[in-house]
Structures are given as structure tokens and as C-alpha cells.
Automatic annotation (TrEMBL):
Organism listed in the record: Zhihengliuella salsuginis
Lyase is among the record's keywords: yes
PROSITE patterns: PAL_HISTIDASE
Catalytic activity: L-histidine = trans-urocanate + NH4(+)
Class of enzymatic activity (EC top level): lyase
Family indicated by similarity: Belongs to the PAL/histidase family.
Keyword Ligase: no
Subcellular localization: Cytoplasm
Predominant location: cytoplasm
EC number: 4.3.1.3
Record keywords, A-Z: Histidine metabolism, Lyase
Cited InterPro entries: Aromatic_Lyase, Fumarase/histidase_N, HutH, L-Aspartase-like, Phe/His_NH3-lyase_AS
UniProt-recorded name of the protein: Histidine ammonia-lyase
GN (gene name): hutH
Length: 520
């Protein structure tokens, strides 16, 4: 059995967040964190008896912060905050988003900077470990003052209210799910309601999950690009290490290295250099020749986004916050601008990676540019349409991705009677990036499916493959789920079958099984 991931005041790793959010890993709050929470809670308890107002402890919230709340109403104040802020709407967001959201908020509690009692954090950990997932709608966060509505639904569930999905995925009342798991609902004390909803936790979780996906997809794009070069009888000369050393962009160097590795030992490429019909084109088209430059720029963008995520994972985002020397201070660290910007930046990179993939696919289908292949890779052009409409599907997705590349973070809208007059829209940026990544996965799947068909039409199939060892392994994996060329078949299931191979990493694993070293 895998050991639980310990939560300490130290930063979480991106891998730990993905393990809990996506794969259901268990967590355990350390003694160090429990002690830190107890110490900061004492600060809050002392302030609760102070005659001066303290935001979130003895006052209202947001534009209502000027109202002081008497002691006998403060438990109601925290309850009312959560109930009123649990106001999301729209489609239910994915389980992994909610789990990432809860884990990131729990880790901030574990830093001891929020004033939350240890038992509140233990309840969050118990809910996560039991596989209980609060129901959260897609609308409700402006990405400032925290991901308010999404976090409020999570806090509401820990209070034993609202709707959740149990470990079996069934929609049930939170009170019933907690009871079945042996978890006692939490009664919130001073400041605790505010501490549970004041963070960039949802958008950070989406950023970390997106980064995990994009690492796989950019390597898959290198693989797909190399297969297209081979299938279109291009040259690998432009991927030479010394050429890319002239422009030492780190991401570009990595993508060029991957493409060299994928094409190494290719008889088709060798034939273009040395055979009777040696390569006569002076240069390949940009979508082939410039693949490392474009793919590498995506890698560089991802590296920048991960640096921002690293800072966030080292943060304790709350307002007010309990400082190391025992002060309770209001601040603006909950503003999601840093995360929102890079979520938008990744959506731009994702759209462009899909765009260059679609252009490579289109070259296979045009008889004037495919270098000897049937029009649209059809078995009998005119009777059959081949992959004509697969490219339409790609084009529709790429067009959608270009619209999704329009940044959410430039669109602030004021709220809370102009108290919260500039917001990040980081949650919206995260949601649209997830849709972009899904689209990119489908576009790459169609390129791989198309290039595999083209290569089969050139050399008669995997059994007589003229491809490199790496590409032969990938073609073999594709042929496990999709038949080779022939008359037109129902195409949608074949696209979906290859999409799954891209999504679960099967095609990268096939490539790595034949490569001298794993693709970067």
C-alpha cells in the first residue's frame, strides 16, 4: 500500500498535488503542522476577546467589514458566510479540480498561518481520504478574494450541508456521506469560515493538472511531428544538433533532440538522402521544418508557468493572515493575477501547438503536397473520402482553441459594492485551458492516425515497415486499436481510440520502448 503524503508547513510538490487530485492518494497532517495551527489559533482566540474590531474575527466581510459582530453571533457569522458564498452555478466541475482545490486549501491551513483549529484541517483530510467530493458548479469565482464560491461549497460539505459525490460517484447529501465515513461535521469558530475560502486554490490546482498534461502532450507533438516528416518524405537534416545550438532556446533543443531520436534509423528518411529518388526539395514547409521552434516555445512557456506554480505552492494565501510573529494582518495575496496570467499564456501555447499539428495533417491530404499519396489518403478517391473530414474536425477544434486563447485575465469586473474592484478571472482562465488541452489531445490524435495511415500506404503496413524503430513501435500500437488502410469506415470511433492512446500515454510509452532513451 502506498504511504500517505504528509502535509507539513513546507511546500507541497506538484507531483503530490496531482497524486491526490487525479489519482486519489491519501494524505496525513503532520504533528509539526498541528502544532503550528494550534499556535496561530491561540492568536485568533486572544483577538476574539479584544474590544477592537478585527476583520473576519469580529467583523463582517468585504463591503460589510465596518460592522462589528457581537460574540454570541460569531458562529452564525461564519456559517452564514459559507452558506451565502456557496453560490456556484452551471455544469458540475470535474472531481480532480475539486480535490486539487481542497488539497491546496488544506495545505495553507497546514502552514499555521490561517488561525484555523487543527480539527478543521483534520476534517478536510478525512473528506479527501474518504473520496468524498463536494459538488461545485463551473461559475462562481472571479479569481480574487479567493476562489470564493468553489471553496465555499467545499467548506459547506465539511459542515455537513449541501451535495457531494461519494467515493462511488453517487450524488448524496453531505451529511449522509460524512456519517457513512465516520466524519463529524465541523462547527466553525471565529475567522475559520473566511480562512476556508480565501485562496487561489482552484486555479492553482488547474494549473498543476494542466502542466502534467502538457508535458505529455508536447512530447507527443514531437513524436507526431517526426512521424509526419517521415510520412511526407521530408528531411531530418534540419533537426541536427549543431543547427539548434546556434539558437540555444532550451525548449527548442529538447524538441529537436526528440525528433532526431524518433527518426533515427528510418529507411524512408535514408532513401530520401541516398536513394535513387533522393531528396530534391530545397526545404520542407514550415510546419515540418520549424516544429522544434514552435514545440520548444511551448516547452519554454510551460517552464515559466511551472515557476509561478512553484511560488504559489510555497505560499500561505489568506486574508487576514497570522504572521510568524503573531500579528493578524489584512493583505492582498489572494489576488489571482500571477496564476491567471500563466493559465492564459498556456492557452495561447496550446492553441499554437494544435495549429501546427493541423497544418501537418492537411499536407497529407492534398495530392499536390503529399508526394505520391492518394488524395485525402482515400482507398479509391472519389468513391472514398479517406481522412478528408478528420481534418475538418481538426480545423474546427483549432478554431475553437484560437477563441479560447483570448485571455480571461484582462477582463476584470468589479464586485462587492466596489470594495473588490479589480479581479483576476483566474478560475475562468483555468477552465478554458482545460478545454484547450482536451482539444489539443484530439488534434494530435488525428495527426498520428493520419500519419500512420500514410505510412501504411507507402510501405504496405507495419509488417513491412519502412519506418524508424520508434515510429514502427508507435504504428504497431495504433494498429492494435485501428485497422490499416482500406475502403471508408466509420471514422469517429477510430479517432476516439487513438485519442485515448494519446491521453493515457500509451503512444509515448510505445515510442520509449524502442528509443535508446525516453523522450524528453
Amino acid at each position: 500500500m502506498t504511504a500517505s503524503i504528509p502535509l507539513t508547513p513546507a511546500p507541497l510538490s506538484p507531483e503530490d498535488v496531482v497524486a491526490v487530485a487525479r489519482h486519489g492518494a491519501k494524505i496525513e497532517i503532520s504533528a509539526e503542522s498541528s502544532a503550528a495551527m494550534s499556535a496561530s489559533r491561540q492568536v485568533i482566540d486572544d483577538l476574539a476577546h479584544d474590544t477592537r474590531p478585527h476583520y473576519g474575527v469580529s467583523t463582517g466581510f468585504g463591503a460589510l467589514a465596518t460592522k462589528q459582530i457581537p460574540g454570541e453571533l460569531r458562529a452564525q457569522l461564519q456559517r452564514s458566510l459559507i452558506r451565502s458564498h456557496a453560490a456556484s452555478s452551471g455544469a458540475e466541475v470535474d472531481r480532480e479540480i475539486v480535490r486539487g482545490l481542497m488539497l491546496n486549501r488544506l495545505h495553507t491551513m497546514a502552514t499555521g498561518r490561517t488561525g484555523v483549529r487543527p480539527e478543521v484541517a483534520q476534517a478536510y483530510a478525512a473528506v479527501l481520504n474518504a473520496g468524498i467530493t463536494p459538488v461545485v458548479g463551473e461559475y462562481g469565482s472571479l479569481g480574487c478574494s479567493g476562489d470564493l464560491a468553489p471553496l465555499s461549497h467545499c467548506a459547506l460539505a465539511v459542515m455537513g450541508e449541501g451535495k457531494v459525490r461519494n467515493a462511488a460517484g453517487e450524488l448524496v447529501d453531505a451529511a449522509d456521506a460524512l456519517s457513512a465515513a465516520g466524519i463529524t461535521p465541523v462547527v466553525l469558530a471565529e475567522k475559520e469560515g473566511l480562512a476556508l475560502i480565501n485562496g487561489t486554490d482552484g486555479m492553482l490546482g488547474m494549473l498543476l493538472l494542466a502542466a502534467e498534461d502538457l508535458h505529455r502532450l508536447v512530447s507527443t507533438a514531437d513524436l507526431a511531428g517526426a512521424m509526419s516528416v517521415e510520412g511526407l518524405l521530408g528531411t531530418d537534416g534540419v533537426f541536427a544538433e549543431d543547427l539548434h545550438a546556434l539558437r540555444p532556446q532550451p525548449g527548442q533543443l529538447d524538441s529537436a533532440a526528440n525528433m532526431r531520436a524518433v527518426l533515427a534509423g528510418s529507411p524512408l528518411i535514408k532513401e530520401q538522402k541516398d536513394g535513387a529518388h533522393a531528396f530534391t526539395r530545397v526545404q520542407d514547409a514550415y510546419s515540418l521544418r520549424c516544429a522544434p521552434q514552435v514545440h520548444g516555445a511551448v516547452r519554454a512557456t510551460l517552464a515559466h508557468a511551472e515557476s509561478v506554480a512553484g511560488y504559489e505552492l510555497s505560499s500561505a494565501v489568506d486574508n487576514p493572515v497570522v504572521t510568524a510573529d503573531g500579528r493578524v494582518e489584512s493583505n492582498g495575496n489572494f489576488h489571482g493575477a500571477p496564476v491567471g496570467y500563466v493559465l492564459d499564456f498556456l492557452a495561447i501555447a496550446t492553441a499554437d501547438l494544435a495549429s501546427i499539428s493541423e497544418r501537418r495533417t492537411d499536407r497529407f491530404l492534398d495530392k499536390a503536397r503529399s508526394h505520391g499519396l492518394n488524395a485525402f489518403l482515400a482507398d479509391d478517391p472519389g468513391v472514398d473520402s479517406g481522412h478528408m473530414i478528420a481534418q475538418y474536425t481538426q480545423a474546427g477544434i483549432v478554431s475553437e482553441l484560437k477563441r479560447l486563447a483570448n485571455p480571461a485575465s484582462v477582463d476584470s469586473i468589479p464586485s462587492s459594492a466596489m470594495q473588490e474592484d479589480h479581479v483576476s478571472m483566474g478560475w475562468a482562465a483555468g477552465m478554458k485551458l482545460r478545454r484547450s488541452i482536451d482539444g489539443l489531445t484530439r488534434v494530435l490524435a488525428i495527426e498520428l492516425l493520419t500519419s500512420a495511415r500514410a505510412l501504411d500506404m507507402r510501405d504496405g503496413g507495419v509488417a513491412t515497415s519502412g519506418s524508424s524503430p520508434v515510429i514502427t513501435a508507435v504504428r504497431t500500437a495504433i494498429r492494435q486499436v485501428v485497422e490499416g488502410p482500406g475502403t471508408d469506415r466509420y471514422l469517429a470511433p477510430e479517432i476516439e481510440a487513438v485519442r485515448r492512446l494519446v491521453d493515457d500515454g500509451t503512444l509515448l510509452a510505445a515510442a520509449n520502448s524502442a528509443a535508446p532513451a525516453p523522450l524528453i
